[in-house]
Amino acid sequence: MATQAKAVIRQRGEEQTRERILGVAAEWFGAHGYAATSIRDIAREVGVTVGAIYVHFPSKDRLLVAVYEEGVRRIGEAVDAVPESAEPWERLEAAAQAHLEALLDNAGFARVIVRVIPTDVPEVARDLRRLRHGYEARFRGLIDALDLAPGFDRSLLRLQLLGALNATQAWYRRGAGRSDTKTIATQFVAALRMGAAGRGSKG
């Protein structure tokens, strides 16, 4: 029993160390960029050796993929929690607000997803694209449910909305006198609706 208890404690310690590494890596990749951040920087900030980093992640680019994966999971869970709505535009607005809240609350992880694009790291570009596309599929489904004007490009609408939401990281500060996240999401979606569904349309 004592041996088993020690194994459990050791496993928990390893999991906590892995979580700390991910959190620090997210902050450094997001603040300084992938290329300018070294494994040594992350190890020093976490308080472990470089070798300890490699116990959990075989390379710097695989650490980036893990950070991406965690960031996508957090934002994805927030959007997935949006309740079903009979009105597709209302559901899109709720999802936009959820995305925005998660983006701002998980600043380090979210900043990496926004700042580090797949082509920046060719070695893992395919994995990063897969993660981004998997997340964006949620908004693809929401936008596919909308009643849009004939010939309107739904892909561009999705990219326009996500681009506007992601850009809030550059200027939004909670309690700084700007609109809250609900107001921002409502206005972004309302502006898109005016153009995409036709001026004055309720469909």
Describe this structure in words.
With 203 residues, the chain is mostly helical. It has a domain at 60-196: Tetracycline Repressor, domain 2. Helix content is 71%, strand content 0%. The protein starts with a helix and ends in a 7-residue tail after the last helix.
Strand content: under 5%
Helicity, in percent?
over 70%
User: Which superfamily, in CATH terms, is the homologous superfamily of the domain at 60-196?
Assistant: Tetracycline Repressor, domain 2
Major sheet: size, sense and barrel closure? Answer: none
Radius of gyration: 20 Å
N→C terminal distance: 64 Å
Overall number of strands: 0
Briefly say what this structure is:
The protein is an all-alpha fold and 203 residues long.
Features:
elongated; 203 residues; mainly alpha
Any chance you could write out the topology, listing elements then pairs?
Elements: H1 2-32, H2 39-46, H3 50-56, H4 60-80, H5 88-105, H6 107-115, H7 125-144, H8 154-167, H9 181-196
